[in-house]
Structure formats: structure tokens, C-alpha cells
User: What shape does this take?
Amino acid sequence: MLTQRLLTSDKGGMLVLGILALTCILVPILNLAVPESSPLHVSTFTVTLLGKFLCYALLALALDLIWGYAGILSLGHGAFFALGGYAMGMYLMRQIGDRGKYGDPLLPDFMVFLNWQELPWYWHGFDMFWFAALMIIVVPGLLAWVFGWLAFRSRVTGVYFAIITQALTYALMLAFFRNEMGFGGNNGLTDFKDILGFSITADSTRIGLFLASGIALMVAYLACRYIVTSRAGRVIVSIRDAESRTRFSGYQVESYKLWLFVFSAVLAGIAGALYVPQVGIINPGEFSPLNSIELVVWVATGGRGTLYGAIVGAFSVNYGKTIFTTFYPEAWLFPLGLLFVLVTLVLPKGLVGLLGRFTRRKASKASEEDTP
Amino acid sequence: MIVTTTMERLQVLMRLCSALAIATLVALSTPVLAQSEPASATFEQLVNEVAQGSLSKRVDTVAAIAALKHERSADILQALQDGNLKVTRDDSERVVIETADNQILDAQTSEPITGTDLGRLKRIPIHNKLRSQLHTLLAQLNLSHPNDEVRLSAVTRLITDGGDEQTATLLNELKSDEQNSRVREAMDTAIALYQLESENATERLAAVKQLRGSLIPEVRGPLQERADYDSDKDVRIEAQRALDSIEGRLKMFRLGENVFFGLSLGSVFLLSAIGLAITFGVMGVINMAHGELMMIGAYTTWVIQQVFPNQIEYSLFMAIPAAFVVAGLVGIAIERGVIQFLYGRPLETLLATFGISLILQQAARSIFSPLNRAVSLPEWMSGSLQINPAFSITFNRLYILLFGLMVFFALLAILKKTSLGLKVRAVSQNRPMARAVGVRASWVDALTFGLGSGIAGIAGVALSQLTNVGPNLGQAYIIDSFMVVVFGGVGNLWGTLVGAMGLGIVNKFLEPYAGAVLAKVLILVLLILFIQKKPKGLFPQKGRAAAD
Assistant: This one.
């Protein structure tokens, strides 16, 4: 019954989920079981790259949920991603233990370097995974709740909301750049050794992280799908299309928006937490407003308001970026900027919309042929 | 033994000489050039004599030159002190001055000597005694120099180096005839500083009272010493009081300085936000490429300086219209090419213009290299206006403040008084109605956007005078500019002015307590909270225009 509700009339979603599931099965096999000499072998580098893309896709999914369905454009979603990443980074830092360069059993290297004597209070507890995992959800969620409560309550919408979320991530970036904040300043957190007792550089750990990201993405997709097909989901769409009318019909517009925003921020935080062990570093650059805005373009390119479009967009834009920067490492901003302009002008429904138009035209042609 | 006797003799001679010099100086303390005219015949002789004879004779000659009070006496002594006074090695033994840029001047007339080869020059030697004599004589000569600035700097030097009894008496004599109040004040300070060391407690007390409220930094050390160690209780109390009053005045001027720096930062905000106030405030277009239009203006300045390397002084006057035109044209191109298809879809406009900003940034990086370019400051922009020792204003910040206000009022005039302004307001208030009465709305849109972009270009010219010009120049200001516009109230130019200046001042006042970065973060947080309270800004639009 539930699967029926989630997946019927979602052909695109089923297709994307199928491909994801297939990738999650095939890639580990091709990486671990197939010998390196074989042309079918998937290198660990590719696994990590794909794992990164999966995290990006999860982040894009989180943004599409609020932008595509509630019409809330957040230009600061990178902040929640980075906060989740920092929470994970702190856990990984504590796991280093006395294997750091300075060999201090308690303090991470950068604190020893800054001549700090004791661990700041907010670093306590991060040596336990369950606590870190809790924080990955609580910190972005709490920030989103406070911020969203303030913003939605005073009916900050549309462009204003976009700009203040951008200011939020900008402010956080400036703050995290400061050494005094106790998050490693400019260099961020890095030199991780192991996660849950597994060495972070081992192939099997990489596969594990890849699988975790893939499963998280699929579960998150189904959860988002559950939300948007529910009654509340329909209220959310109606808020997007006619906010005042929904309010006058007696719905509490603010609380719908707020909880959706918090949920989306939590998803972004989880994406960040899965991202950090795979790339091995988290620094304040992740808070940069440019990252958040690039994220918006993934969703726009894929097609907003479809959920699976966000996943398609995240994969295609990032794949394009990887290819492009290999050949012209300096000039990535040209195609990225062009993509912004073209998608908004020519492809308002994104790649998914383009495909949909194509298949629909085919279908209508076929039906035309049938009728006479 | 012989050495000491020579030294003693020299010292006696020195004292005689300075006494003689002072006596003459006092006699001639009203500087009238005509008086020194008849003596100028001997001035030339004396200049020639400097090179001759022994060192002890030179001491006499130098004193005589000083005593003449010839208008060029100070030059000769200065040159001698700096080792620039030289003599030719041939028989004529002409005395010349070699300037820092290797120009040879005739010491007697200060005319440059060209053409004739003088051969190798010999520096006229001086020794320590002569050097300190020169120091005192120069100070004394300069103290009665007809030029106010020279006198002032001579007194200032006495304050820093400390004076002896003779200079104190001399200053006392000169003070009564001093016309310039600033010089007189400095003289009072110098005398009081000397009297601070007096044996007599009443004199010290008077000196302390004199120094009360003085802002000259050299005063504080000796006063502190008096306040801590003076044998007389009254002097100690009075010195502490004087120090407190100095501290109070310093605090006041520091406040003034903070306000000025705040206004200066505010003027930068104003310049960057004012173009946005048009495109965003009046037209409702979110232009994320606004910062890059500023960058274009800044690069225009740089290019103009490269094309006319000899006209740095005037480059800004060329750059301002050029930047306006270049940035304005780019703006019109953006409007015609992209934005006109997106009216009424603000979020899409935001994304598309963000894409444009990325393209422009990368273009700057590809054309001008990712490195920062330094735009040179014209002579008249550098330097500072010294109001008193504790408070000075740099010219570039002052001019940019004035320039920002000028641009603001010019824009206000354009919007209020010209027909374009009328059409802009008409279209922004009621587009269909404006079209109905024959306004070409799309054409007005393009021009309005061009105007806003052109002003961004002008802001870039001003910014190029404050920071380095690089591809990321615009990014640093875009969020601040939006904040200013939102804070001041969208669609209200006065709000933009108040918002910019207010944010600038708050920023500068937070900085000492929180540090530059944290101040910025605090401001952003405060603004976010402020928007909660007043979502429409400080000065919300009223009436029909407010309803969108």
C-alpha cells in the first residue's frame, strides 16, 4: 500500500531509484571482486568520486524538497551541509587520539599548535559516535528551526529569504575562518585516521561509505516522496502556489514551512556528514555562498519540483564539472555561469522537463496515429 | 692633554658663538628682509669662507652665517649638516650644494650650475661639536623664519628633542611677537615642557597647568613622570588632573575618528548600494552581478592608467565617465539579453544574474590575470589633513565620502527632476498605466538598469582608490550592498543613505571590541534580527506603491 503510494505515477523516480540500487550493487562488486587488470574494474578513486556525488545528490534532494515543493529558495543550504560535515569531522578528529603530529591524547593538533590547554566544552562527547551522529542531526536542525522560525514568523519570503540565507552562510564562513572559534580556522579539520575503528583510507571502508551514502540517498528519496505525497505535502504545494489563500483556508502556513525547512536542513547535514570522511577534510570554504548557489544550479538543471530531477541534476552537473576541470582547470566558472543563464532562460523545467517533453511528444504522436 | 685643551677651547668658543647668535637673533627677531639686504655682500664671502681654514674657524663662520639671518642661511647650514655642501677641487674652490637628485647648485645664489664641468667635488667636513652647533643654530634660525610652517616644524622638533635654557629664553622672547596661533601654542608647550624640569615648584605647577589638554604625544611621558614622582604634592595632583583631561580629549577625538572612519566605510557602502537601490529598489530586479559591474568600473580605471601613464593626476576624471559608460553598456546588455525575459520571476532573475556574475568574474580572471592590480593614487588623493596631533583625516577617504554624497544627490536629482526620472518612477509604480500614457516601458527598463549599472561602475572607480583591483572585488561588497538596501528600505534612496552610513558607523564602533571579522558577523546577525522586526526596512514605502 505504502510502496504503491510512493512509487506509482513516479516513473522517473522509479528509474532513478533502480539505477541507484544497481550502482550500489555493481560498484562494490566491480571494485572488490574484479581484478585490477580487468577493464570492468572500478578504481577506488571512482568509488570515492561516486560517493561524493551521492552526497551531493542527497544535498540537492534536500534543497529540491523546499525549493521545488514549498517555493522557499535557500541560498544557504551549504551551511547545513557544512555543519553536518563539521560534526562528523569533530568525531573523526577525536578518533585520531594520540596519533596526531603532536601526540596529544586529548587535544587535536591545531589546538596544541594554538597552545590551548584544554578541550573547549563543545568538543566534549564527540569521541562517541552516537553523540556525533545525534549532533549531525541536531545542530543543522536546530539552526534551521531557529532561523526558520524567525524568518517565517515575520513572513520573510522569496528573494528576501534567499538573501538572508546567503548572509547566514556568509556569516558562518567568516566565523569558522577564525582560529578562536576552535574549529581549526582556515585549515579546518583533516588528517583523519579511522571511522568506527576502520581505517579511513582502506578500500573496504571506502566501499562502506559509498554504500552508506547510496542507501541514505535512497531512504531520503523515499522519505521525501512520502512527505510530498501525503496530505501535508499537498498543503505544502498549495502554500507554494497560493500562500495567502492557504493561510485563509485555516492552515498554519508557518509551521508547515518550518518543519519542512528543518527536515531539509537535517538531510543536508547528513549529506555533509557522509561527505567529510570520503573527501578527508572539512574547512570553512564549504560555507562559501558560491557552494550553496552551485547547489541551486544542480537542482535547476535537473528540474525542480520532481525530487529525482535533483538527483539527475547533481550527477550530471558534477560529472560535467569533473570532466571540464580536467581539461580546463581554470575556466569552470564560464560553463557554470552559462548553465545558470541557459537553464533559467531556456530550460525552466530542467533536464527532466526536457526528457518529459520529448517522451510526451512521442506519446501524443503515437496516439495521433492510433486515432484515425 | 692637547686634545682636551682643544676640546675645551672649542666648547668655550661654541658657547660664545651661540650666545652671539642668540643675541643677534633676538635683536632681529622681527624678520624683515630689507634689514638683511645690506649684509648680503658679506653673505657671499662667508659662504666661500666655510670651505676654508680649520674646523674651529668653520665654527665661527657658521655662527656668522647664522647671525646674518640671510634668507638662505638656513639652506647653507642644512646642506652643511647633511654633508651636501661641497667644494670643487680646483683653485677656484667654488662652494656648491649637491642636492639629493645629484643636481649641483651654486651655494651663493642657489642657481643650478650646468654646462661647466666642475670635476670631482670634496665634501666640506664637520665634526660632532660643529654638528650639534649646527643643530641648535638651525633650530634657532628656523624659529624666526618668515614661513609659518617652517617655524612650526622647528618648534615641534624642539618639543621632541627637548630644549635647553637658551632656547627656552629665546622662545619666550619670540612668543610675544608670534602672530600665528598654532605656532604660539606649540611654543607654549615647548616652554612648559622645559619648565616642567624646573627646581621651583610653582613654576612646575604653572607648566603643568599650561600643558593641560595638550594633545601632543611627547607631553604625556613627562607629565606622567610628574604625576608619579614629583616631590610637591600639588604638582602631582595637578599633573594627574592634566593627564586626565588629556585622556578625555583623546577619547573625544578617537570617537571623532571612529565616526569619520564609519562614515568613510558608509560612503563605500553607499556607493556600492546606490546603484543597487535603483535596480533592486526601483525596478525590483535582483542583480547579483552588481558587484561585478563595480569590478568592471575598477578595471576601467586601471586600464585608463595603463593607457595614459603620464596623466595619473587626471586619470580619475577620465575614469569616472569611462567607467559609467562601460559598466552602463554592460548593464544594458545584461538587461536586454537576459533580464527582460525574466520580469516578474525574481528567483529566476537572481539565478541568471548570478550566472552572469560568475562569467564576468572568470572573464576578468582570463583577461587581466587572477592577480590583483594596483591602481595608483593621484598626488592630490594621497596624504592627510592633520587637524591636531590626535586626529587626522586621509584625503582619499575624505574625497570618497564627498564623492559618494555627490553621486547620491546627483541620482536623486535625476530621479526627481528629469523626464527619465519621471518615467522611471512611473513605470515602477504602475507599469500598465505608464504604458497606456505612452511611456516605452521596456526602453525605460533598459535605461534604468543601465543607470544603476553605470553608478556601480563609478563606485568601482572609488573602490579602486581604496583597495586593490582584482576579480573578486565585487563579491566582497555584494552582500553588504544588499543588506544596506534591505536595511534602509527597498525603493527609498534616503533609506539607502541612512542605512549605509548607519551600518558603516556601527561596523567601526563594533570593530575595536569584536575584531573586524566578528564585527561583520555581528552586523549580519543584527540585520537578520532587524528584518524580523521591520521586514520592510527602516523607511518602508507607504501608500499604493508599497503593495506589490
Summary: Chain B touches chain A through 40 residues (CB under 8 Å). The mean pLDDT of chain B is 78. The CA atoms of residues 332 and 446 of chain B lie 6 Å apart.
